[in-house]
Design brief:
Layout lengths: L7 H9 L3 E2 L1 H8 L3 H13 L3 E3 L4 E3 L4 H14 L3 H7 L7 E3 L1 H8 L12 E9 L3 H11 L8 E9 L11
Parallel strand pairs: 5-6
Antiparallel strand pairs: 1-3, 2-3, 4-5
Helix pairs in contact: 1-2, 2-3
């Protein structure tokens, strides 16, 4: 294994990859050019993590490097509130923050009440069509949904909704 494979792009690829995927879809989810995504997936393919065809990338979930890397991610990041917020972008689902989190985002962290380390719900709404996908990613990464303790997503599902983005200054 090359040391170069331990980098943020590879981690994002391994987090966002689905059992059957395409390099183009992964590059869109991780916000990296197709060329660079192709390069890293090709390197991961050489390790047996992906089996590539002309149009598809098949994830080998039994690969030891893949398993160890996911274990590392779960051990280090899944108890981190910031990770819960940022990883949603890698799932490729329609979502938006609601309730306390909508205000938290719009005030750029200036409003954050009724939460603490042992009880930190992150309020999101997702599209019904993405519910199973979100659950799969949460299971893969050991992220909690609708719990009563710790950090967890408190989700509500809707058929469709508008999404507004907060632009950076």
């Amino acid at each position: 294994m090359k040391i170069e494979l331990v980098n943020p792009y590879v981690l994002k690829i391994l987090i966002s990859a689905r059992k059957e995927d395409s390099i183009r879809a992964i590059s869109k989810r991780i916000n990296l050019s197709y060329g660079w995504t192709y390069k890293w997936i090709q390197e991961l393919s050489n390790l047996g993590i992906f089996k590539l065809t002309r149009t598809k990338a098949y994830l080998n979930e039994n690969n030891q490097y893949y398993k160890r890397t996911l274990k590392y991610i779960k051990d280090i990041l899944t108890n981190n509130v910031h990770f819960y917020y940022t990883v949603l972008n890698l799932f490729g689902i329609g979502y938006c923050f609601t309730k306390t989190d909508a205000v938290f985002i719009w005030t750029r962290g200036g409003y954050n009440i009724a939460r603490y380390r042992d009880f930190y719900p992150i309020f999101i709404k997702i599209k019904i069509k993405d519910k199973e996908l979100l659950e799969d990613y949460c299971k893969k990464l050991n992220l909690s949904i609708n719990k009563k303790r710790g950090i967890f997503y408190s989700i509500s599902c809707l058929e469709d909704f508008d999404i507004e983005y907060l632009l950076n200054d």
